[in-house]
Amino acid sequence: MRMLTVRQPWAALLVAGIKDVENRSWGTPYRGRLLIHSGLKIDAEGFELMDQLGIVLDGPMLRGMILGSVNLVDIRQDSSSLWARAGVNHWLVTDARPAVTPMPAAGALGLRPAPAGWTKAFAA
């Protein structure tokens, strides 16, 4: 399992199954389940877009936590998704699964191995 750190509110939108594309300047050969970790920083542009689209999420915008997982199915640059930005790689994700209990974890740049004990976030 791999983990990706994403700023809020993008991380919450991904694990809620609302956002189906994660925009990145880089690609990876990895495909499969991907833990979504919320970074400590926020992206104000994301909250502005949520307001424009009328998107409201329940609960607090947790930071520094494993929030859930998605399935990374492909990376392209031509997605027609509302969430896709021009000129970057579109990480196409499906099958969002929120964590049962969000788990604190340290973030980092890039795609990296999941931290020890990550499965506890998904245990009922």
TrEMBL record:
<feature type="domain" description="ASCH">
    <location>
        <begin position="4"/>
        <end position="76"/>
    </location>
</feature>
<dbReference type="InterPro" id="IPR015947">
    <property type="entry name" value="PUA-like_sf"/>
</dbReference>
<dbReference type="Pfam" id="PF04266">
    <property type="entry name" value="ASCH"/>
</dbReference>
<dbReference type="InterPro" id="IPR007374">
    <property type="entry name" value="ASCH_domain"/>
</dbReference>
<protein>
    <recommendedName>
        <fullName>ASCH domain-containing protein</fullName>
    </recommendedName>
</protein>
